[in-house]
Specification:
The chain is 33% helix and 19% strand. It is α/β, with parallel strands linked by helices and 583 residues long. The protein has an 8-stranded mixed sheet with strand order 1-14-9-2-3-4-15-23, sandwiched between helices. Strands 19-18-22-20-21 form a 5-stranded mixed sheet. Helix 6 crosses helix 7. The longest helix is centred in the first third of the chain and has 48 residues. The chain starts with 37 loop residues before the first helix and ends in an 8-residue tail after the last strand.
């Protein structure tokens, strides 16, 4: 054919609308002809304007030169825009890179540790009818003097090498529907059963004990051991732990701009002839927003408030005040506040490994944002003086078990919710992965656990329930003469038996009309064991005790989050806010 059949090939000088589309000026040779016949075409184009050039005012005349100047001016503007776009792109990439680095910086701040330090055998609660489960977090305050900051704040420079103790312990329970929250505390000097725990590095095993205070759990296996102790005690699965030391308390109080607390009258917790030491707290009567070292002094004050139980009550007041302050600052939605809190919190807190990330902590915080102050209830587990040491406490078992049962059943500590919300939601059956063996093939040991510190065991209960089981086909069931004291009736199975053991235990529970929550794995169990608790002292039909919202036992020092009150101060720590000394 002698020439291309494609129209215009070999004579195109530029791409139509190329500059308007922001492409490079030199695209397709910046005006050079391409293909065959390029030289001849260029000469012809320079002498005779094309139709398109004539329409644009092009060519070699005056009109053409003016059009060229206009095109050059537009080209310059387009270059500026193009470089601006490139610069903005680099800035965006740089900002994203800086954001990533900051995110990694925050992650690097966070210290973690194993969730559990031993084996409690307690399992996570089954989801309710909506598929939701409660959230339980153990809050721990450490008295560690491992660094100079903590020594400066807490004193005791000779204690730097001592293992830390758990000065403060609170279990935060958030309901499955995330509408209410309950906080329970146990005084640090309370004597109770501490299970076997391993040290944090796994090099040492601490034997179980019944004669050590709960604050020593931290030195026996770190916060994981404290968590395992709480699980063993309450039967409540605890999802995470969060721990703070002296310096962390100060940093968090400063970050929120102070926490409101109240005393009546004023207080000065100073050394006396009978009580050396003291926190040094000195506040005028009324409400003060404590921060810095003063916040730490508030949390550590015991003598001026009269007892460990009252000190826990003061700690609850502080916690409620901090939640109120955070809500007023829109801390869950304000980006600026979130950034400041993230920087401080990631440095101040140590957490269990499963939430050891910015995302983990953020997701956890979002679980708490919908709980209003009037649905946040704090309480102390009632205690009594230990018979072997007047300076130590023991739990009041009946009161403690009632509160633990409310936590296990997700029953609100307050009465402010809708009646439907206050009742535990029905839970689907926790069906095991294995099929239970024939009842007649299962050996079941039955123990009488109906006795307590305040009431003797109901005579013959183990024998009565054994005969009941035998009549239901469990012909190998045997009663034991061993005594066991337990508030609730449970069926335990060896943890090593796994799903099969669970299925067998559930078959026993079902035969007796016990709820699925009565089935527990036990690492020390030798076989299937039924402990008939104080909740089944008579009859052959089990009736599960029902807990009602707000039905807290006496002596629990219940405080609602939106209640305003002041801590009472005891002599000789009262201060009028003016005189140089107390009265």
């Amino acid at each position: 054919m002698g020439q291309s059949s494609v129209r215009g090939e070999g004579t195109r000088k530029s791409v139509p609308r190329a500059r308007e589309l922001g492409w490079d000026d030199d695209l397709y040779g910046a005006g050079e002809a391409t293909g065959a016949g390029g030289a001849g075409s260029e000469e012809e184009a320079s002498s005779t304007p094309t139709r398109a050039e004539r329409r644009r005012g092009g060519g070699s005349g005056a009109g053409g030169r003016a059009a060229a100047r206009r095109r050059a001016k537009k080209t310059g503007k387009r270059k500026v825009l193009r470089w601006t776009a490139i610069t903005l792109s680099l800035l965006i990439l740089g900002t994203a890179g800086a954001g990533y680095l900051y995110y990694q910086h925050l992650n690097g701040n966070i210290r973690g540790g194993a969730r559990a330090g031993g084996d409690s055998g307690v399992k996570k609660a089954a989801p309710n009818a909506l598929g939701d489960t409660p959230l339980n977090i153990l809050l721990i305050g450490s008295d560690s003097r491992a660094d100079a900051k903590n020594v400066a704040l807490g004193g005791g420079k000779d204690l730097r090498k001592n293992p830390p103790l758990a000065d403060v312990q609170m279990l935060l329970h958030v309901s499955a529907d995330r509408k209410n929250a309950s906080v329970v505390s146990i005084p640090r000097d309370t004597i109770l059963h501490i299970p076997e725990c391993k040290s944090e590095d796994g090099s040492k095993t601490y034997a179980a004990t019944d004669e050590k205070p709960i604050n020593e759990t931290l030195m026996r296996g770190g916060p994981g051991c404290t968590l395992t102790t709480w699980e063993t005690l309450t039967g409540v699965y605890i999802d995470h732990w969060i721990m703070v030391d002296f310096a962390g308390v100060v940093a968090m109080a400063d970050e929120v701009g102070g926490v409101p607390v109240c005393v009546n009258p004023g207080v000065y917790d100073h050394p006396t002839r009978l009580q050396p030491g003291g926190s040094g707290l000195k506040l005028k009567p009324g409400t003060t927003e404590v921060q810095g070292k003063q916040a730490l002094q508030w949390l550590r004050t015991r003598h001026a408030f009269g007892s460990d139980q009252n000190r826990a009550k003061a700690q609850h007041m502080y916690m409620n005040g901090m939640v109120e302050k955070l809500q007023k600052q829109n801390a869950w939605t304000d980006t600026g506040r979130l950034t400041g809190l993230a920087e401080t919190a990631t440095s101040a807190l140590q957490v269990s490994d499963e939430i050891k990330s910015v995302k983990g902590l953020f997701d956890l915080a979002m679980q708490l944002k919908n709980v209003k102050l009037d649905r946040l209830t704090t309480a102390n587990i009632p205690t009594a003086q230990w018979s072997k040491d007047e300076n130590k406490n023991v739990l009041v078992k009946d009161s403690a078990e009632k509160m633990f049962a409310m936590l296990r059943d997700d029953v609100a500590f307050d009465k402010n919710g809708d009646p439907a919300d206050a009742k535990p939601k029905p839970k689907p059956s926790d069906k095991p992965k294995a099929t239970a063996e024939a009842p007649g093939s299962l050996g079941v040991t039955v123990l009488n656990g109906t006795g307590s510190d305040t009431e003797p065991a109901a005579e013959g209960r183990a024998r009565t329930i054994t005969e009941l089981l035998q009549g239901k086909g469990f012909t190998q069931a045997e009663s034991s003469k061993d005594a066991a004291s337990r508030k609730d009736t449970v069926v335990t199975y060896p943890k090593a038996d796994g799903d099969q053991g669970k299925a067998n235990a559930q078959s026993v529970a079902k035969a007796l009309g016990l709820p699925d929550s009565a089935v527990r794995a036990d690492a020390k169990a030798q076989g299937l064991t039924l402990v008939v608790g104080a909740d089944w002292r008579e009859g052959t039909v089990y009736k599960k005790p029902s807990s009602e919202a707000g039905d807290i036992p006496d002596g629990a020092d219940v405080v609602r989050g939106d209640e305003k009150g002041c801590m009472q101060v005891f002599s000789p720590y009262k201060w009028d806010g003016k005189s140089p000394t107390t009265y």
